[in-house]
Amino acid sequence: TGEKGSSKKVKLTSAKIRSWQSLSESSRQFLETVMDSVILSVLCQQSERKDDVQKHLNLLKDRVLRFFKTLKVPPGKLGNLKNVSSLQMAEKQMLETNEESLVQLQEEINEAERSAERIEETIQQLQYKIQVLKNQLEEDEKKARKVF
Asked: What pTM, to 2 d.p., does this model score?
């Protein structure tokens, strides 16, 4: 589409369509890397039911990759995908960075859970001490009443 929302009409003849070729292996690999990066980004933002979401996204990815194997595309008209290897390297680097961030986030979550457990233990200990002191206070008050 153009800047003003107009669209360019392309006429396809059956002869043109017959000349189309399967999507190249490098293009499929690049698109798979992009999908992996997107899945990882989605999972980083997901707080609940990560396993279900990951399973569903991987199933969708597998279906799309199977479709790519039979997808026919016009020859020589791949524009963005001409420099697939450099784009693929950039996506792989971004994926690695995202994976490292995910590991770091998981470590932070684990530390926060350990900290929460320690706080919970401290709270329980303090509640027990409070109860012991209350009981002691009641006994001391009873003794004081007997004295007076």
From this structure: 0.47
